[in-house]
Amino acid sequence: MTRPDALSSRQEAILRAIGDWIAETGESPSVRQIGERVGLSSTSSVAYQLGRLEARGLISRTGHRWRSCRLST
């Protein structure tokens, strides 16, 4: 049984993908780029997971675009 506050493996993979991408390029990945890294072809599925991570305070973004997301400290 999973703890209610635990991240899903997909959410962990997305956080890792964002962090790796920022470390490699110096900028945030697009929703499609995140999807490619974690094996999701649906951009709406990626956006849904990003919204869940943002609601938990694990990522933040400036404006309305996910391209500006950053990992929260």
Uncertain parts = none
Q: With helices defined by DSSP (H or I, 4 residues minimum), what is the helix count?
A: 3
What is the strand arrangement across the widest sheet? 1-2
Helix content: 40-55%
| Oligomeric state, counting identical vs distinct chains | single chain
Portion in beta strands = 5-15%
* Rounded mean pLDDT score: 89
| Termini separation | 28 Å
Q: Helix and strand succession? A: HHHEE
CATH architecture: Orthogonal Bundle
The largest sheet is: 2 strands, antiparallel
Task: Write the CATH fold name.
Answer: Arc Repressor Mutant, subunit A
Overall 3D shape: globular
Report the C-alpha radius of gyration, rounded: 12 Å
What is the strand tally? Answer: 2
- Number of discrete domains: 1
Question: Structural class of the secondary structure composition?
Answer: mainly alpha
* CATH classification class: Mainly Alpha
| CATH H-level superfamily | Winged helix-like DNA-binding domain superfamily/Winged helix DNA-binding domain
3D architecture notes:
- This protein has helices spanning 9-25, 31-38, 43-55; strands at 59-61, 69-71.
- The protein has a two-stranded antiparallel sheet with strand order 1-2.
- It is mainly alpha-helical.
- It is 52% helix and 8% strand.
- The model has no long low-confidence stretch (mean pLDDT 89).
- The relative contact order is 0.18.
- The protein is built from three helices and two strands, in the order αααββ.
